[in-house]
Task: inverse folding
């Protein structure tokens, strides 16, 4: 059963139990003077059983919410890890571009632009170092960002969809309908 379905079932059961509990409490209040001790005992026993069922139901709902939160946190951590990896990869590419420029090699204009956007100081340091290597033959390099442009079309499912479609090992709620005496 999926988390969303399980939650809906348990919430419905919780609402049913709450309604039945309200009816019992109202009966206790309305018939306080007319009710025999036996009837009062039956209603109190039903009320206790309902309270236990409500507590069990609430426990399952809380565990479902905990599972949703854990899945959400896992997905967010995964996204943060991917973003951090991307940032580190970009930094490594910029450092490589700066090394190539400072060596006096030719790099694509797009790579120079990326380095300039990443760090003006690093770009200027590389350009200044390149001035020292003007007599050497210059090597040409391909862009380090080519693969990034090719892989930009991938899409990912939203976290909410992943949580809602996650299977959980929770049985359907035990439907408890208490016979309320008239």
Result:
């Amino acid at each position: 059963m999926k988390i969303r379905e399980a939650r809906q079932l348990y919430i419905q059961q919780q609402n049913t139990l709450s309604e039945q509990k309200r009816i019992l409490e109202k009966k206790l209040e309305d018939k306080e003077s007319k009710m025999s001790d036996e009837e009062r005992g039956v209603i109190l026993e039903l009320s206790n059983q309902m309270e236990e069922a409500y507590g069990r139901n609430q426990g399952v709902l809380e565990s479902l919410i905990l599972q949703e939160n854990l899945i959400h946190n896992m997905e967010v951590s995964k996204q943060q890890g991917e973003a951090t990896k991307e940032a580190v990869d970009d930094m490594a590419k910029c450092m490589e571009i700066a090394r190539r420029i400072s060596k006096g090699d030719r790099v694509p204009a797009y790579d120079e632009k990326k380095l300039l956007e990443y760090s003006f100081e690093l770009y200027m340091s590389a350009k200044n170092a390149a001035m020292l290597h003007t007599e050497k033959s210059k090597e040409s390099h391909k862009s380090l960002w080519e693969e990034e442009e090719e892989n930009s079309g991938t899409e990912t499912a939203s976290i909410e969809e992943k949580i809602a479609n996650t299977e959980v090992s929770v049985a359907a709620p035990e439907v408890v309908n208490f016979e309320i005496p008239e």
Remarks:
- Residues 3-150+158-163 form one domain.
- The chain has a mean pLDDT of 83.
- The two ends are 37 Å apart (CA to CA).
- The CA atoms of residues 14 and 30 lie 24 Å apart.
